[in-house]
Design a protein that fits this description.
Blueprint (H helix, E strand, L loop, with lengths): L1 E5 L4 H12 L3 E6 L9 E4 L17 E4 L11 H21 L7 E7 L6 E5 L9 H14 L7 E7 L2 E2 L5 H10 L12 E2 L2 E2 H13 L4 E5 L5 E2 H12 L9 H8 L4 H4 L2 E3 L2 H5 L9 H11 L1
Parallel strand pairs: 1-2, 1-4, 2-3, 4-5, 5-7, 6-13, 7-11, 8-10
Antiparallel strand pairs: 9-12
Helix pairs in contact: 1-5, 2-3, 6-10
């Protein structure tokens, strides 16, 4: 299979490139910055300023779009614009490039932020939440689904926080927790959906290869309360995990962006479950122990 990966220099993009190469697929890596992606044909593309380079999708079987700027930071108007455009506009340009034919599959990123702050269980049929992140996810997915009008199979990966030894969430959490300064965010009562990086890769490849279309909740079947996640990480590191990060302090540090830390979703991965996928990690403490052993 010949697959284009947009966002190939990111955490998940880099992992999917390596996984595709490991199984013998040919990869075309779309990146915004300089440099090459090892094992892939690298295409420089600045989606905020230009369409997909002419001919870049010729002869490809599928596109995996994981482009998107980081969310876990202080939100200003400019940052919110960047968060939105890096997802919505990039996807729009990719789908426009599919208008002339070519790849028959689009696996597009999305996020469990689609559901907003939700206590009740949310499978893929649940309605969207309200607020900035759900609105971005709705627009993001709507742009991807336009490809379906051209006969392209579209799978939307609504991804939970990924537990990875290579960066992302764990890169932020491990330093304070190793010093015994970790603890619950806010009151810690919010749901915390999660997915181990190995399961994320396997589910993404499953969505790429299979007949699945539409939204796919990429999350472990066992979400936990955020306070329980913090306690599990403390046990893995043999450190106390009782130093809370009060909601007020988080709002002062991150502004509106604190909503991404203080809100949670009780996510149900129904599509993956019904598709018969066998998770490697369903226990959060076991997943954290594995990730910490690799870090």
């Amino acid at each position: 299979m010949r697959v284009a990966v947009a966002g190939a220099s990111g955490l998940l993009g880099g992992r999917i490139v390596r996984a595709l190469r490991a199984r013998g697929d040919e990869v075309v890596a779309f990146v915004r910055g300089g440099g090459q992606v090892e094992g892939a044909t690298t295409v420089q593309w600045f989606p905020a300023a230009e369409p997909v380079p002419a001919g870049a999708l010729d002869g490809l079987d599928a596109v995996v779009n994981l482009a998107g700027s980081p969310i876990a930071r202080r939100w200003s108007d400019d940052v919110k614009r960047e968060i939105r455009e890096s997802r919505v506009e990039t996807t729009r340009r990719l789908v426009d490039a599919l208008a002339g034919g070519g790849p028959g599959v689009l696996v597009n990123g999305s996020a469990i932020g689609y559901y907003g702050d939700r206590e009740e269980p949310a499978d893929e049929s649940a309605p969207p939440g309200t607020g900035f992140l759900p609105a971005v996810c709705r627009e993001w997915e709507a742009e991807a689904l336009r490809a379906g009008e051209r006969g392209v199979r579209v799978a939307l990966l609504r991804t939970a926080p990924v537990l990875s030894a290579e960066g992302g969430l764990m890169e932020r959490l491990l330093p304070p927790f190793r010093l015994g300064l970790g603890g619950p965010l806010g009151g810690g009562h919010q749901w915390f959906p999660w997915i181990h990086e190995d399961d994320w890769i396997a589910i993404a490849l499953w969505a790429l290869d299979g007949a699945v279309s539409g939204p796919v909740n990429v999350a472990a079947p066992t979400p936990v309360r955020q306070r329980d996640f913090a306690a599990a990480l403390g046990r893995v590191l043999h450190r106390p995990a009782v130093v809370p990060a009060p909601a007020l302090a988080l709002r002062m540090a991150f502004g509106e962006g604190a909503t991404a830390l203080l809100e949670g979703q009780n996510v149900v991965p129904a599509v993956v479950r019904d598709g018969g996928y066998a998770y490697r990690f369903t226990d959060v403490e076991a997943a954290l122990r594995d990730v910490v052993s690799r870090a």
